Amino acid sequence: MSSNGVYKIRPAGRHLLTIGRDLIQDNYAAVVELVKNAYDADSPCVEIKFTAKDDLKRYEITIEDHGHGMSRDTVINKWMVPSTKDKLERKTSPAGRIMQGRKGIGRYAASVLGENLFLETVDKTGEKTNVFLEWNSFEHSEYLDDVEILIENQPSKENPGTKLTISGNQSNYEEWNQKQFDKLRFELKKLISPTPAESIINEEYQNFEIRLIISGFSGIPDVNELIEPYPIFELFDYKITGKITSDGLGKFIYSLQKAKNTIEEEITINLGHETGCGDLIFDIRVYDRDSESIERLIQRGLRDEAGNYVGKRQAAHLLNVSNGIGVYRNGFRIRPLGDAEFDWLKLNEQRIQNPSMRIGSNQVIGYVLIQSEEQSNLVEKSARDGLQENLSYERLKEITKEVIGKLEERRFSYRRKAGLSKSSLKVEKELEKLFSLDGLKKQIRKKLISQGMKEQAADEVIALITNEETSKEKSAEEISRAVATYQGQATLGKIITVVMHEGRRPLNYFRNQVPRISRFQKKLLETGDKKNIDEIAAIAKGVESNAAAFSDLFKRLDPLASGRSTSPKELIIKQEIQGCFDVFRQDMEDNKIQVEINGNDDLTFLTWQQDIQAIFTNLIDNSIFWLKERSSIEDRRILVNIESENNKLIYVDFRDTGPGIDPVLIEDGVIFEPQFSTKPSGTGIGLAIAGEAAERNGLKLTALQSGTGAYFRLQVKDITNE
């Protein structure tokens, strides 16, 4: 039997408990939600008080603010109604604060913390409203409107504000020990942005204080403290601060505190496109974690929360509890972004790939400030466990890692100069040092003569050493040759990427069309219909064109497939460079990258082909990456000029119209260092390989400053008198 008409849904009684217990992550999140409610009430402060009744194994939590309070009507029609749109629609408090509790679920966090709740609130008219909630009554009631809630009203001379008293049973009591209270302190300390930079977006947050009181818990010291950020934030080794506006343009200050005198540098960033996630404000501080660096941090004035100087172990502990990059909106952190164990930027993965260049999550303390959901499209999850993983969130991660990358570049350079990290090994030079005994021979000869040996006898000893030195030079050559082979194999990785990219399309065509040929062949045999012949012919034509694409690909790769010869050859420079570009032809066509190579068509140079390929393959690969990443599709060009005189090579200039190279990095000379990379996931071997390949051939590869993109020069050394 059925009936027509209107039916009104009656929510189950346990609906409120489901909201609180299922959507609030844990006890800490529950307290944070109630703190945010105090902020939304325009209170200048909030007091969180844990009072144990140790003999009964129970406790009370009071959360009290001095905001505008609530009227009876507000309590009944807004506070007690689940998922109300009130804060979402208002967006700001009466005092102008941007509302934190916009999901309409925060007050039900109380059900996570205890078995009942007593609400006392006084509004600005002097009306006091009391509400008592027993959460079990919701659990045992079939429908929500079956629950009877006691509400009292009376006039009051008390100041406006709201006080929540949560009573916890034995089960609730046993959840809190020293470790849990330490975690709560951590959450509260990281809840509010640690520096005034937040005021750029919202100044009101600076007037909001949090006080935590703990008393009566067996074995746990009483606490009465004003929650403040960890003191380590004031000190740092390296820091980058600044803002990127929604149009993709940013200005930053890089600071180096690790040096004897603090160094500062202005940095500009141009993403080449809009952020896709609104305006972003950054304050990121990095700490070296080796023993000597921690000692210097202490010497610069690091103290604990009580103001006492700390030892190495305490300093390391402060770093451990403070690390992470938080995301803040309107003064409050979005959990769990910024938790030490939540590496949302995957910094540790990058560090494993390139430990000299990249920083790990345990080395960084900082934050990113984001705008409202409407302005940024960065939307908090209903369960308050981070941001929705949409395109804007991906853009936030990419941009944050790029900002960190600017700091990493300068940190890498400083540590190299200061001798704080192992310098790069230029293979040719290091082998020369290893097998050259000139200095030692002079010392030995001098020592032998001073001990009474005749000069002739001393010279004979030195001659023996010289003979051994000569034999070792052959070993050095073999080692150099082996290193060159391995470097060539590293370059080959870039070529394999091209093969995978270009070869996939014809392979997919073959895989999809072969079954069709079989099907049409079967139909032809069964029916004799000549239409099937036409279908087979069309497929055969497609097979032919895709096979031609394969053939062309292998033809382009053929010059790079030859092994390293034992001796250099006279090669036509322009032809070799063109061959390197041919490898990337499809990628450049797909991305509208134009190439121009100018110079003597017949000019030759005595060199190893594999080394020329290593140089230009890496230069081209870098240019394509940055042109695709940052350049307008209408202006993507690579220009190569081969300069010669009297039919001899002088230099080759390689330029593109990409974002270019930071002048500071050019001056420091770090871009050719192994493990240095400006690519977000770069390994830092490409330019290092290119530089060493140049050295082996009497050439020098340098980066030059340019206002129109990257600019490299490959110059013959004897021309430069080097």
**Total strand count, please?**
22
Sheet with most strands: strand arrangement = 5-4-3-6-2-1-7-8
Cα end-to-end separation: 99 Å
Instruction: Tell me which CATH architecture of the largest domain applies here.
Output: 2-Layer Sandwich
Largest sheet, strands/sense/barrel: 8 strands, mixed
Query: CATH homologous superfamily of the largest domain, by name?
Result: Histidine kinase-like ATPase, C-terminal domain
Shape: extended
Bin the strand percentage. 15-25%
Runs with pLDDT <50, length 5+? Answer: 197-205
The tally of domains stands at: 4
The chain-level mean pLDDT equals 80
The CATH topology assignment of the largest domain is Heat Shock Protein 90
Residue share in helix: 40-55%
Please, could you describe this protein's structure?
The protein has 722 residues and is α+β, with helices and mostly antiparallel strands. Strands 5-4-3-6-2-1-7-8 form an 8-stranded mixed beta sheet. Strands 11-10-9-12-15-13-14 form a 7-stranded mixed beta sheet, covered by helices on one side. A hairpin with a 4-residue loop joins strand 3 and strand 4. Helix 2 runs parallel beside helix 8, helix 14 packs antiparallel against helix 16 and helix 16 packs antiparallel against helix 17.
